Amino acid sequence: MKRVFASLFSSLRSWINSMASSKRLLLWICLLTFVLMIPALSAGFMLDDYPQRLTFWPQFRFPGGPRGDWDLFHFQGPDRSYFQHHLQQGLWPWWTTPNLRLAFFRPLSSLHHALDYRLWPDAAWLMHLESLFLFFGIVYVLGTLYQRLLGVTLTAALAVLMFAVDDAHSMVVMWIANRNALWAVLFSAMALLCFIRYRQGSFPSGKLVGPLCFALGLLSGETAVGAAAYLFAYVLWMEQGPLRTRLLSLLPYALIGVLWAATYKLLGYGSAGSGMYIDPASEPLHYLSTVLIRLPLLLLAQLGLPPADVWMQTPTSILPAAAFVASLCLGVFSLLCYRVLKLQSHTAKTAAFFATGMTLSLLPVCAVWPGDRLLLCSGLGAFGLLSQLITVLWQTRAQHHGIRRALRSTIAIALLLIHIALASVLLPLRISFLASTFGSIVPRAAATLPPSELFPDHTLVMLNAPDPLVAVYSVSYRFLQTQKLGDAIRLLSVVQRGSLLVTRTDEKTLVLEPSEGFLHDPLSSVFRSPSLPMSVGQQVTLSNMTATVLSVSPQGIPTRVAFRFERVLEDSSYLWVIWKDRGFVPFPLPRIGQIQLLPAIDYQLAMGMK
Fold first, then answer.
1. Pick from 46, 429, 373: which is nearest to 180 by CA?
2. Phi, psi of 395, rounded to the nearest 5 degrees
3. Quick one: average pLDDT of 141-170?
4. Whose CA is closest to 128, among 431, 340, 342, 411?
5. Which residue has the higher pLDDT, 313 or 603?
6. pLDDT at position 484, please?
7. What is the pLDDT of residues 349-367, one digit of tens each?
8. Of residues 604 and 18, which shows the higher confidence score?
């Protein structure tokens, strides 16, 4: 019996090795990935897809906004008249900081979106298919890159397979507006491959093609900055000679990066005032303190569990402790890699290249909230490193006995189960889950709004909503369906925890007092960073409403706000709604002097998770 099993195992090993060296391997992996990602084709539109679609309607073109089809990620630039228009219309909520800036220079990705929205604006399935082909392009280039670095081996095959089926890529593949990351990483991988082949003497044209690909990546999205991490890691670990000479080979890439950064700033792009994005250039200390927390969490998510998405809904007070635990886990993992891979010189250098590139490529995305969609570029290094670790653990297990041999086998099998077996199951499930939650909440919310015939000459007043984006995007979705638009939106609060106390003090005024304060949900801080306090007596004056801050927390977060409207609250020009369970319902106004205690919104129920 032992001979039979040994023969079967030997045959299986030979088959796996032959598949790993097959020229069709990458095509088979792409086919497997396509099957796993099929649910993305029916995901539809979600989140930022709606405002980008509205950009092509004349009613939504205003001076100071996007400059053309190449500028669709210009949400809020330095133009204050554009800001005031959005604030008055209610596209920015009343608490939005006056210095808000959210503008990203992604002309190539924008032009791709413009082509879609001008030729087939309602064919979401086709746009998803385009994103899938972009992802397959990344897989193919990375497969070639892994084979260049690791040889045509099982190790290289494992690396590209783990990258292809990684469930962390579910969001970036199925979210049309996030396609910029796919373009950026595709060009980044091409730039790195061209640079390596040029330095190895097999592709002289790489001297020009590599920097060109890097430039195209930067023009696609900021994620391409991560390519610089791998270029630096390559000359640091994989080449010989004086370090200064090696670094000089990166000069063309450095010049392109400097030119891109200068253009970015001169044209007014960047972020300011938002709690979601940090500008490292203007807030260096804040950025560095954030890196200490976010980098360990992102690295741990990239190498194993838990997913980085869980930290978006985690209270900020818990994140430092979580980062400390993550750092300890990463320390153990680093020690394991060192002990296992140090004995082979070439393997150790390649592992150091992958680890350095992975870590440094995450530094730019630490300026954004942690999320799995940020792990596309770092996956290049992570799965190269993990494939080496798995292969060496398995190949050297026979050199050990007892607990050491069992431990090596267990670690290798566990990593394979997490990054291939479990990831392959989770990838389609996560795509379907995201489609049924983030993809469905806006159409569902829009369906529960008042009839579109009432919108003209009316102000839609939302006492409470699941988050600011659902409030605005639901109205955007309704417009795309009916081409009817109201005078303005007035979102008064977002209350996901505790309760909401509503007091009517006179015929025109409501006072709202969330038990947990305003701005306690992550998406509310998109429009105002928690580091930008408000003060008692501060007023925000809009065309038909004034919000007055009556009390604040010690951190300057509003806890009680009075909303005084231009007309009596019962005036027919106001459409009052409030969120209940899974949609909006009419809000019965309290009588003068009446106090109502309302429950917080169950966000999981609102999103369709229950």
1. 373
2. -70, -30
3. 94
4. 431
5. 603
6. 82
7. 999 999 999 999 999 999 9
8. 604
Instruction: Report how far residue 136's alpha carbon sits from residue 255's, in angstroms, rounded to the nearest whole number.
Output: 30
Tell me the angle at which helices 345-361 and 124-150 cross, rounded to the nearest 10 degrees: 150
Angle at 163 between CA 161 and CA 166, to 5 degrees: 105
Place of tokens 């638009």: 485
- pLDDT for 25 beyond 50: yes
- pLDDT value of residue 5: 40
Phi, psi of 376 (to 5 degrees): -70, -50
Provide long-range contacts, Cβ within 8 A and 24+ apart, for 447-455: 447/583, 448/583, 448/584, 448/585, 449/474, 449/475, 449/478, 449/577, 449/584, 450/575, 450/577, 450/586, 452/478, 452/481, 452/482, 452/484, 453/484, 454/575, 455/484, 455/485, 455/486, 455/575
3-state secondary structure 333-365: HHHHHHHHHCCCHHHHHHHHHHHHHHHHHCCHH
**Sign of the CA dihedral with 269 first, then 275, 278, and 282 last:** positive
- Mean pLDDT (the chain, rounded): 91
Share of the chain above pLDDT 70, in %: 96
Q: Give the β-pairing of 74-76 and 545-552.
A: unpaired
Q: How many other C-beta atoms can be found within 10 angstroms of the C-beta atom of residue 595? A: 11
Angle at 142 between CA 371 and CA 137, to 5 degrees: 85
Cα 80–85–86 angle (5° rounding)?
100
Write the CA distances from 131 to 159, 219, 449, integer angstroms: 21, 17, 32
Both tokens of 553, joined, read 């927390």
Nearest to 596 by CA among 470, 503, 514: 503
- In the chain, the largest separation of any two C-alpha atoms, in whole Å, equals 90
- pLDDT tens sequence across 27-58: 899 899 999 999 999 999 998 999 899 888 87
Residue with tokens 């701005």: 519
Beta-carbon count within 10 A of 130 CB: 16
pLDDT digits 0-9 by tens, 76-106: 988 889 999 999 999 999 999 999 999 999 9
- Which tokens hold the place of 26? 């990458």
**Helix, strand, or coil (residue 24):** coil
Judged by DSSP in three states, 438 sits in coil
Report DSSP state, residue 600.
P
